[in-house]
Amino acid sequence: MxxxxxxxxxxxxxxxxxxxxxxxxxxxxNKREKYLDYRLSPxxxxxxxxxxxxxxxxxxETRPDHQEALRxxxxxxxxxxxxxxxxxxxxxxxxxxxxxxxxxxxxxxYISLENLLFFARTYPASFRRLLLKQDGKRATWEYPFAVAGxxxxxxxxxxxxxxxxxxxxxxxxxxxxxxxEDEEAFDVLYCxxxxxxxxxxxxMHASYMEFNEVLQVTRTQLERxxxxxxxxxxxxxxxxxxLYQFAQETG
Length: 251
Description:
Oligomer: single chain
């Protein structure tokens, strides 16, 4: 498996918008992209359609299944602490912006909660390590875990151009190949992107106001890895070492 090298990057303090959600890529439309034509297989079309259907589901705090998903996320994060309610100051401990997490989902929808739950269930040790900021020398002002997770979902959706009928750039095309091999490719890629973001955060010695820059560097690194020719599964990405090695150490 390839070694993983982070892109070196000089940091600048950036004043972000009032809300973290979706504030990063408002200027990305100014870039000129080289569009490619790629014909999807029937299986890829089917899986892309199902993924796009997930993107259309807003978080609805009145739906019992959405409420239960939130409770499940809390239990995964803090199994020994009883949740007092779906609106509670306790949620800030997980990194939500206020006592009602439902307000933070407006920028990305229910899929961002699904991503967090998938991370917690599939890579529980990595999930808790990032939640509790257990690795490396941490900043005095750390990024809020849950809201950062929503931003990672938002970044991936934009980077992969998932609202389009089919991808028009190499990273998006290669992602469709991954999706053809594994229907959970987006969710696994989310876990990997979250790990990459945290590793970049540590490598850049970043603090709260530099989160947007860290996420942009993470996106650039992920685009480069998704542009490699010999990537057929998410597990083939060089950065997968971040998830794989930790799973091996704790398995």
